[in-house]
Amino acid sequence: MNKKLRLNKRLLLLFTQRKVWVRQIVVAGLAGAIAWQVGDLLVKSGGVVAAIVCTLSIRISLHKSLREGFGQIVGTAIGATVALSAVTLFDFGFISVGLTIVMCAVVARALHLGEVASVNVPVTALIVIGPGLSESTALNRLGSTLIGAAIAIFFSYFSHPKTPVGRSIEQITTVSTKAAELLAMMSEGVASGYTQKDAGNWLAKARLLIEEIPAIRSQSVEARGHARWFPTARKDEAEEIYIQGIALEHTVVQIRTIARTLFDCAVSGGIADSTQKAIAVALSAASYAISSKFEDEGPSSDDSYQSATTDAREASSALAESLIGDAQDADQEQIVRAMSMAANIDRIADSLDQNSPALRDVVTPDEPAAAKVLRISVRGQLARLGKRISGRVRKIIGR
């Protein structure tokens, strides 16, 4: 009996500890079922295609579903055209299927479609040229695809309990907490005398923090895009969250550099006893500054963390003075490494205060081209096409 209760408890925990995932799959299942029903009602035998497209298009955010839904529609139009042309020329068979897949890949590349839409092009093309192909069937399947994409866009709003800004704040808070804890761990290790193994563990954790930055960048970009068109979203709030994401990225990079420096110091013989305390104090001050800035704060937070960043700068300055005082007696390489840590802590304070020109004066790319549904916007592609056409017309007239 006890074993059965434990098993039931474990099974229950598998779902209760993954509430967001459960919500997403429930919404996806409901959306697919409704897409099948609506597709069958509006289009003859269109339920299956609508459900397939809905399942492919639904994502955890409304903004991304709009983009991917648009990519799905573009892919469907291209796939249907290519598929019908291939079947008309070669009938349904080996040649038409192979030619359809190849041509869809070429056309998707020519239009600079992103990864998701490029995959959707041949998929939807094969759906279109499935059994029982005719002109009316192709149009029905095209209509079913549009229905499935529209339902996916609608239901994606309910896939996540938080807004894009809320998700950005959650990610930033989580990573900043880990960053502050890592600096505190390094501070305690330096104060008590750390080993090369300890430094290696710190460096490994710092590298893992760096790997979380792309997700924060992607989410903050989504928050900005969502704020541009969603009526209840605040643009200033999204912009502030975006800057906070960049500030955290710069902070985490400095923490990884500090961890690497401590590791190099351990390999070279360790930190001098005379500077251990100053380095530990500086790292602790930086940890507290990060906690004060990001934990339990939203985009409209006050400047209560200013004193914490000031303390971090003062601790960094005290570390530099201590190193300069020991410059004649200590190993020069170790002095240089410790001075670099002081500079890293100053950069962390500047990033937290958001007063560094590196944050606001340097344009940060919104998102990698590979992550976009359209690598080049529709407006950009039309502008390029117009320039090419006008250039060729001028050449012809010039002749």
Automatic annotation (TrEMBL):
Q: Which Pfam families match?
A: ArAE_1
UniProt topology in membrane: Multi-pass membrane protein
List where in the cell it is found.
Cell membrane
Where is this protein chiefly located?
A: membrane
Listed InterPro entries: ArAE_1
Q: Does the keyword Transmembrane apply?
A: yes
Q: Which GO terms describe its cellular component?
A: plasma membrane
Keywords on record:
Cell membrane, Membrane, Transmembrane, Transmembrane helix
What is this protein identified as? Unannotated protein
User: Species name for this entry?
Assistant: freshwater metagenome
